[in-house]
Amino acid sequence: MSAVPASGGKRLRRSCAQLPERVLAVLAAGKGTCPGQREVAERLCMSPRTLKRQLRRQGLRFRDLRERVLRQRAEQLLGGTRLPVDQVALQVGYSSGANFSRAFNRWQGQAPGRFRQRLGAVGESPIPVGTAP
């Protein structure tokens, strides 16, 4: 027999189901670079190991969620500003433009400059603010 009341078990399952959204919210709330797994776990009042385990149960990885937020930030900066790619890289949290360009190419299949060109006029946001890709 379980010591957890039926309603408590439902609450636990519901909170686990909402975990990816909570992680994304913490990641997106950072003004500078995205926080790491340890900091996100602390903000969610759990250990990094528990965070990892609960995400894995849902077929997710922290790294993938973090990259989603980084990609969204990069797309918004490239599409909505005239910042040079090196400055976008720094604002997204990369130490160099080269590292950022490799990551962006992996995400989009094209270089950041090419993405900006294909987007057309600077000032158009590629992703509506507040939506996840």
From TrEMBL:
Superkingdom in the source lineage: Bacteria
An example molecular function term from Gene Ontology annotations: DNA-binding transcription factor activity
Keyword vocabulary terms for this entry: DNA-binding, Transcription, Transcription regulation
Keyword DNA-binding part of the UniProt annotation: yes
Cellular component aspect of the GO annotation: cytosol
Domain HTH araC/xylS-type: 21-118
Pfam families, alphabetized: HTH_18
InterPro entries, per database record: Homeodomain-like_sf, HTH_AraC, Tscrpt_reg_AraC-type_HTH
Gene3D superfamilies found in the cross-reference section: Homeodomain-like
Protein name: HTH araC/xylS-type domain-containing protein
Species in which this protein is naturally found: Solimonas fluminis
Taxonomic lineage: Bacteria, Pseudomonadati, Pseudomonadota, Gammaproteobacteria, Nevskiales
